Amino acid sequence: MPDIQLSNSTIRTYKRCRRHWYLAYFLKWGTAPHLINPSTTAALGTRVHTAMEAYYGYDLDPVEALDVVYQVDTFDHPLHEEVLLKEKSYAVAMVKGYLDWAAEEGIDVDLRVVATERVVSVQLPTAHGMVTLVAKLDQLVQRESDGAVLFRDWKTVGTLAKSNHLILDEQFRFYHLLLTLMNPHARVDGGLYMMLLRSKRTARAIPPFYRQDDISYNDHDVESMRLRTVEVAEDIQRTQARLEAGEDPRRVAYPSPGDHCRWACPFTNVCPMMDDGSRWQDALMGNFVQQDPYHYYGSQMIDTVRSVLGKMDTREESGEPVRPQHDSVRPF
Questions:
Q1: What residue ranges do the domains of the chain occupy?
Q2: Is 198 helix (H, G, I), strand (E, B) or coil?
Q3: Number of Cβ within a 10 Å radius of residue 319
Q4: How sure is the predictor about 310, in pLDDT bands with cuts at 50, 70 and 90?
Q5: 227-247: pLDDT as tens digits
Q6: Contact 280/23 with Cβ under 8 angstroms?
Q7: CA 77 – CA 92 distance, rounded (Å)
């Protein structure tokens, strides 16, 4: 069986629709950069992520970081300039408000930031060989009062109601499992789910606008997540092996149509072509590009921000870490 790499996004895509997984992760097709809509809620979330990384990872002003981000994006997408500038006012209001709220609530008082945007990986044995679990953590922090390690994830949201269902969220369970497998002797104490409401906080807006939830898991949770991860990993290994052996992808990687096709899949126009005899391969080549499905794990915009703000750390040239690592969390 092939040795494969799996992120939570990979697993979620496979469980939702095998055909989407087949096109994106097996054949490695993705949306061409010039065709990506720069003014979606997902794009806004990415920009706020960059501001938070600048603030927590490099001691930069997050509002200044946003200014750089939007300058770059409006230059790259001049036809979207008006929309992007309007969105910028939302982003700035959200980030400024967050800084005030974080200071008032003291959410960072007992936390030491160990790393930002850290890519971590660990091998997991299955019945068909090894798979590599991989994740990119928005933040890895250590609670100074007891030395526990936690991860923090930033979400720009339309409502704070998701708090009611966070215990079911597999992304955090996956992160917790990965860190636990990496260092069984460290105390991993779950994650911090940080939500920023997409709001300008005008006089008519109704608070609260921010919320941080602490999600913890016990040993039973971890073992359950390990079992389900092994099971889906073995299923993916079998599917990939059958595809590599030449079996028909229409059978092996069948679609699972649903409402998610509209908002979660870029291949909605190509998908039916795979079933009606059309030249779907040509449609892919004409509208998509082949790329590493984990390309977003790179540094991306933050290097530009640091360069423009004159804060690039020369230690990186020698391979030294930008932020010193504490002995108890160095394996991460």
A1: 4-238+295-329
A2: coil
A3: 6
A4: confident
A5: 999 999 999 999 999 999 999
A6: no
A7: 20
Task: Report residue 13 as tokens.
Answer: 């895509």
What are the start-end ranges of the E strands in the chain?
4-6, 29-31, 111-126, 129-143, 149-157, 188-197, 210-215, 288-290
In contact, 147 and 186? CB cutoff 8 Å? no
Closest CA to 267 of 277, 238, 257: 257
Q: What are 274's two structure tokens?
A: 């795979």
For residue 313, the model assigns a pLDDT of: 52
Q: Identity (one letter) of the amino acid at 316?
A: E
The answer, yes or no, to whether the previous bond of 255 is cis (omega within 30 of 0) is: no
The Cα 27–Cα 292 span in angstroms is 10
Q: Per CATH, which fold does 4-238+295-329 belong to?
A: Lambda Exonuclease; Chain A (3.90.320)
Q: What gap in Å lies between CA 179 and CA 175, rounded to an integer?
A: 6
Q: What is the pLDDT of residues 118-159, one digit of tens each?
A: 999 999 999 999 999 999 999 999 999 999 999 999 999 999
